[in-house]
Amino acid sequence: MAKRALIGDLEALLGAGKVLTEPEDRAAYSYDAAVVKPVLPLAVVRPETEEELGKVVAYCHRQGIPLTVRGAGTNLSGGTVPHEKGIVILTGKLDKIVELNPEDMYAVVQPGVITANFAKAVEKEGLFYPPDPGSQAVSTLGGNVAENAGGLRGLKYGVTRDYVLGLEFFSAEGDLIRTGSRTVKCVSGYNLAGLLVGSEGTLGVISRIILRLIPYPAAKKSMMALFSDLRSASETVAAIIAARVIPATLEFMDRFTIDAVERFSRAGLPGDIEAMLLIEVDGHPAQVKDEAEKVEKICRDCGALKVRVAENEEERNRVWEARRSALSALAKLRPTVVLEDATVPRSKIPEMVQAIQDIAQEYKVQIGTFGHAGDGNLHPTILTDRRNHDEWRRVEGAVEAIFEAALKLGGTLSGEHGIGIAKAPFLHKEVGRGSIEYSRRIKRALDSRNILNPGKILWLEGSGGE
Amino acid sequence: MAKRALIGDLEALLGAGKVLTEPEDRAAYSYDAAVVKPVLPLAVVRPETEEELGKVVAYCHRQGIPLTVRGAGTNLSGGTVPHEKGIVILTGKLDKIVELNPEDMYAVVQPGVITANFAKAVEKEGLFYPPDPGSQAVSTLGGNVAENAGGLRGLKYGVTRDYVLGLEFFSAEGDLIRTGSRTVKCVSGYNLAGLLVGSEGTLGVISRIILRLIPYPAAKKSMMALFSDLRSASETVAAIIAARVIPATLEFMDRFTIDAVERFSRAGLPGDIEAMLLIEVDGHPAQVKDEAEKVEKICRDCGALKVRVAENEEERNRVWEARRSALSALAKLRPTVVLEDATVPRSKIPEMVQAIQDIAQEYKVQIGTFGHAGDGNLHPTILTDRRNHDEWRRVEGAVEAIFEAALKLGGTLSGEHGIGIAKAPFLHKEVGRGSIEYSRRIKRALDSRNILNPGKILWLEGSGGE
């Protein structure tokens, strides 16, 4: 379809102010946070109501125009990179918390609500929405659902999937589909919300989300433990779980990352440590006290050089500052950052960290590793310069080697960043061709014209993406 | 296909000992726990390995023979009633706990493992598998996954769906599909496990399940509170949640049920009470103490006539005896029991209980109501005699009226029993035709010959089931 006609149609449908067509607008929405090739969309639209959203989807279906829905564009696997013959739909104006029900502990939201804003609104009611992806200050709940976003609290509190009670979404044809309920228990029909979660916008366009909430924990306690060797840190993680303590967060940083953080923030971290654990327990005050003491003792018993327990909110913030600045600190070192999220069963973390260090040596690339030790979700972060072709080829080799290592240890390619474009060619190594074929049958049945974020996730050698 | 040829083929495939064909065998597997018409299958097979299970599925696909997988047959919506031209596949011999990993807190099981046996095995490791459907002493984990089974702990601990990390299942063609992981975080490809959970055997035949485990709660405390009126009991439930206490179980029984229990077990319950709450809090000992005190105070403040706190395990058992015998006690009163599971947001329980009482009067039927007040999942239980045609018509009217009442209050037709055959004609009232059409497209794409438990869930007026 001619671009001019498309833009005319969209303007007629939504009003001219909601259709962005200037080169700079299209460029702004041609990429996301993954290191993949940007693609200019034909146009960008910003619907302001759920009805307008549905109209755009129906229009795209009639005309066979690919559409990519975009929240904040923080995607780390290229899932929000549009199609060259398609449009981008922004959800930023669909940002209402439709209902926040403390009595029945659920909320109904539009997809454009920002994660952290939602968490704050919920907290005011004494309630808690645990999923906290790294990008929560800007990421949207719609994006979180489409990607099944994780965060620091996966071990104790699960991921986005565990909080989605129901959805309203538009099918490829633009028909409104309802699924799920405002209740924890609902088995009325297929669990379509379960299918849509993590499907990266390839099966429907989300217009409303029903989220489960839980009581806000009454108390929290944080601590930082420093280790002179990796194995002691790993043994500490295993010993904490073996003691049946499930921290709300149990984070890990390797020496390379610690050094980068120290250079970046001068936080006063000692230079002779190989690994750091950042731990927070939460819950009933007596439980928190008990668990914090247990964890501190375990850290010391496992050989921690130093354990720093935060005694107040200010000290707690200082503990987490190091973790929060990890990615920024690493990103300062080189022009291009490739942030991976290979995940292994937590007991395999020592092997996985070792494997990553070996891979860094073998491929002669710099890798800093930090992440969620509690749930086995590590973030090996490769520092490079995409313009250096020789180095980039080695980076690609290292990434593939990291995938292989995670799978060999019984893990997964992606814990929380999605498959998108970046990992699509590798998916078959984890789930097998059968699982991809099965998924493609679903995709074809639900999106016969292949307009819903085409080319993402379902890629097969020999037949490519669809 | 001729029955004799079918049996010959199955015997050749599995060995004669694994194929049951006698009329009494076929009759034994012609019905489940729902009040629906029994259907005799052509044959019943009992595969002993996952490989044999896959072979049977592939054979059925080649020959176009409908198959219904059956665990313990405790289904309450007719989901395990076979097709008249189909076979029943029993999972009883696929009962291995393949792996129980305390370090990484997951287990891998075959579908025929009995729920309570699994819970016990897990408990020995200091771990907890919370879903506890009423039939857990005989129900299987495969059935629990296929139905997304709930139980008493939904409010605090969620339902089966919340513990399924991954699946292996056979597609309609008999190809083995793997999905999910041994980690809490996994976004590699579509969440097929999420789609399969609660799909009642219509999309695949489950051969392995990866289940998430959590630490076993260190302490528990139970109590029973008696009320002279319904509203006080309901206000108590609301006040407990408003105090941000989330009990592990928060059960309700109405007067009719209490009377039946008293007649059945002579437990010494007073005769002048209208409602009873059974409450258990669990977790850290200090938290349990605090919460039990809070709950007791709330019960008294809301006007409980009597609160009995269990001081030891024996007293705790006595508290729960009344609840455990509720269904048996009601079932003794009349020849036929229709156990419903309409669910509403918990704040709507007073309206829902009132609506059920009004419906009992209007349709002149006996209804005892008990169930999971904490998560809004009530079990209105209609006592009748199916052979009495006039009364049965009134029962059918009452059931439909209960569905309407639940939906009007923002609830769902089925919290945990499934749609199956019994509720299929009503599903569209909850999710709309669009959602059913969308689901049928998935079903058609994945089961082109419609052999996987056909006729369940997806029924539309005008076009019937598929």
TrEMBL record, chains A, B:
Gene3D superfamilies for this protein: 3.30.465.10, 3.30.70.2740, Vanillyl-alcohol Oxidase, Chain A, domain 4
Domain FAD-binding PCMH-type: 37-216
Keywords attached to this entry: FAD, Flavoprotein, Oxidoreductase
SUPFAM superfamilies recorded: FAD-binding/transporter-associated domain-like, FAD-linked oxidases, C-terminal domain
Keyword Flavoprotein: yes
Coiled-coil residue spans: none
Pfam families: FAD-oxidase_C, FAD_binding_4
The keyword Protein biosynthesis belongs to this UniProt entry's keyword annotation: no
Cofactor: FAD
Molecular functions (GO terms): FAD binding; oxidoreductase activity
Family statement drawn from the similarity comment of this UniProt entry: Belongs to the FAD-binding oxidoreductase/transferase type 4 family.
Name this polypeptide is given: Glycolate oxidase
Organism, scientific name: Thermodesulforhabdus norvegica
